[in-house]
Amino acid sequence: MFDVLVEHGFAVETQVRVGTYRIDLVVEGDEDRRLGIECDGDRYHGPAEWPSDMQRQRTLERAGWTIWRCFASRFVREREAVVAELLGELKRMSISPRPATSRSIVYSQHHTWASVGTDDSTADTLPPAPANDEPAVVVIEPASEPEPEPAPVFEPEQKSEAP
Fold it and tell me: Whose CA is closest to 20, among 55, 44, 52, 56?
């Protein structure tokens, strides 16, 4: 599958780590469009592993990934049909082949959060911007608005009994 994608001019990365998971192949296009490809074979993805594979796929999809699955046995028997389906999915997602000079696999984002109590004195300690061939780090600072006042708590009035 890797060879087919490279022959068609796509930017492909293998064994991409996403959290605790690895995606077999990732094809990336412009504007953060990417397709994760899982190549399922009987050795590692037999019927006993299917429920955990589907749970893993749902987790990745909730994290923003689109996953396309290919069974090795089908790829061997129906190679042209499988390749046509994959190229159709890439086209549907607007992922196009990229010239070799413009390839830069950036398949995930890295977020850094500061503690709520920090001040602006740390601004001078931030690392320099990455070079073109390095993944970017997005620093998300806490809101500058003050915390809202807590809502008042009203206690029910207690009735006093008359003697």
Answer: 56
Q: Flag whether pLDDT at 134 surpasses 80.
A: no
Alpha-helical segments (H) within the chain: 2-7, 50-62, 72-77, 79-92
Report pTM: 0.59
Mean per-residue pLDDT for 99-112? Answer: 51
Residue in the block written with tokens 């987790």? 59
152 pLDDT higher than 60: yes
d(CA 17, CA 9): 23
Assigned fold of 2-102: Endonuclease; Chain A (3.40.960)
Amino acid at position 72, single letter: A
- Please check whether residue 68 is in contact with residue 86, taking contact to mean a CB–CB distance below 8 angstroms: yes
Tell me if 1 sits within 8 A of 75, measured CB to CB: yes
Residue 2: C-alpha distances to residues 36, 102, 160 (Å): 12, 19, 81
Distances (CA, A) of 76 to 58, 71, 73, 99: 27, 9, 5, 29
The CA distance from 34 to 95, in Å, is: 7
